[in-house]
Amino acid sequence: MMMSVRLCVALAVLAVANGVPPKASDVGWVVLNSGVNLPVVGLGTWQVTDDRELEQALDAALEAGYRHIDTATIYRNEHLIGKVLKRWLSEGKVKREELFITTKLPVYGMRPADVPYFLNESLTKLQLDYVDMYLIHMPFAVKREAYNNGRIDANGTDLTTDHLAIWKAMVAEKEAGRAKALGVSNFNETQIERIIKNSPVPPANLQVELHLYHQQKPLIRFCRKNNIAVTAYSPIGSPGSKWLTLLSGKELPDLLNQPDVKAIAQKHNKTPAQVLLRHTVQWGVAVIPKSSNPKRIRENIDIFDFSLDGKDVATLDALDKGLDGQLFDMKHIGGSESHPEYPWTALLDKPVA
Ligand SMILES: NC(=O)c1ccc[n+]([C@@H]2O[C@H](COP(=O)([O-])OP(=O)(O)OC[C@H]3O[C@@H](n4cnc5c(N)ncnc54)[C@H](OP(=O)(O)O)[C@@H]3O)[C@@H](O)[C@H]2O)c1
Ligand SMILES: *[C@@H]1O[C@H](CO)[C@@H](O)[C@H](O)[C@H]1NC(C)=O
Ligand SMILES: *[C@@H]1O[C@H](CO)[C@@H](O)[C@H](O)[C@H]1NC(C)=O
Ligand SMILES: *[C@@H]1O[C@H](CO)[C@@H](O)[C@H](O)[C@H]1NC(C)=O
Description:
39% helix, 12% strand, binds 2-acetamido-2-deoxy-beta-D-glucopyranose, Aldo/ket_reductase_CS, NADP_OxRdtase_dom, signal
């Protein structure tokens, strides 16, 4: 099983490295180290809490062939997703085993006893017996009482976070069948390595910010070496998160109008979004673009009928801005930067943008 895991990703990646584009079948899914298939394109659902908007998006996505849906306790939309899934399942339009549902342990639930509590809450809302992937959302933590109706107190930091104890509680959920696979999000290499060294169950997945300007190549290599699949969040640069500029002073990048991206899109008769997603997928990385627009939802999964050639890939690879391209430093989450598990220590030596 462990062998076949890497194979699917490795094939795609090797093919690209040699300038030979992979076939769609090579990148339709990534096999996790737990033996489960992760569909390579999923629907992101962050910042969608309107009932009708989300229902329309999910219907469009499921009709377009999406089977992978990404949510989290903190997105406050699991109950809406559950309602739509229930309808699709009870009408027999999709089978449970075809779906891949990911949700996440909230930053205010970072104690071992919180793991069964919040997973149970998620399962109840999703109307499911198990999730396909349960992720620890953030490596740092805030106190339970710091969270109130979607808001987190600036003074809420919980300094007692014990990753190994939390991971042990995660493993118990996998053993009980309530989560088919386990992973982490926003963790750095050191934090992941510590879990690998101290637990019989390694993370199957790392979900991190990853897009044209923040390509995360070293982290991808680290994960490949350790048999961990990578999922890219904000794969088209989160153009809807306009509030970020107000919050951090950071300019939102306009990846969809980047001239090289536009030229490559024109060359392949595809859209800029499709080029951005395809670029990431050709690295063997899964993508979870969010859209509430049925046309764009269809567009975002229609990336398996073309391939970027070696020259396209080299052009796009060269646009990486490394840490300067990062959008979400999570400093807005209750004192995260003063937490001992804040993952981006390199940012702490820099003045706040
Ligand atoms: N683990 C974490 O900490 C974390 C953090 C951030 C995000 N995530 C996950 O990753 C998902 C995606 O990230 P994201 O929502 O930040 O950003 P994203 O997927 O990069 O961008 C979403 C934005 O792009 C627009 N868009 C989507 N497809 C488009 C297309 N084909 N052409 C033009 N515009 C398009 C959407 O608008 P319309 O809706 O109008 O199409 C929306 O405003 C989230 O929804 C969430 O599930 C996880
Ligand atoms: C799970 O949640 C349900 C409904 O909220 C509750 O009745 C049940 O006792 C919970 N189980 C656990 C193990 O927490
Ligand atoms: C943060 O400070 C506010 C105002 O002083 C207080 O009401 C709240 O309980 C504090 N939160 C935590 C988690 O200590
Ligand atoms: C990851 O974060 C921890 C906690 O802040 C820090 O000690 C470690 O140096 C970081 N590792 C990397 C590779 O950035």
